[in-house]
Design goal:
Elements: H1 2-18, E1 42-45, E2 51-52, E3 57-59, E4 65-72, E5 79-86, E6 101-109, E7 112-113, E8 118-119, E9 122-127, E10 141-143
Parallel strand pairs: 1-8
Antiparallel strand pairs: 1-2, 3-4, 4-5, 5-6, 6-9, 7-8, 9-10
Length: 149
Amino acid sequence: MRLHRSRWCAVLAFCLAGCGTAVGGTRVEGRAPTGIPWSGPVYVEDWRSQPRREPDMMDLTEVTTLDRLKWRDWGRPRATATGVVIDLACLSLCEKGEPPTYRVRVVLNGLSKRQYAAYYGHASVTALASPAPWWAEGVGSVRLHVPKA
């Protein structure tokens, strides 16, 4: 039995050693193929986990609403926008009956690619005119929801 098993192992090793090689070695033709760049839609999810593409308005957090967003470089590793933050919760007591706003710059980064889409994972908001109103002091750096792969 042992002789039979060792003979079988020798034949298997001989066969596997020759697999995938041509007589005289491996032959290479032409340049190696380049990787195909990933392409697909890019989204940002608001605090309700609703995916949006280049939104002109979105709820960044439960109390932070961004409006009038104008995007540049959407789909790249870093997308930027200008717009306004609206005090919809009326923390400032909504003088004149309208919620106040202030102008901001929004930067999205942390692009995570998935099979069919990509998502930004981080947002930062900075006031265009300092200082930001007291009711918006908590806005700054926000970690965004990114769906699992």
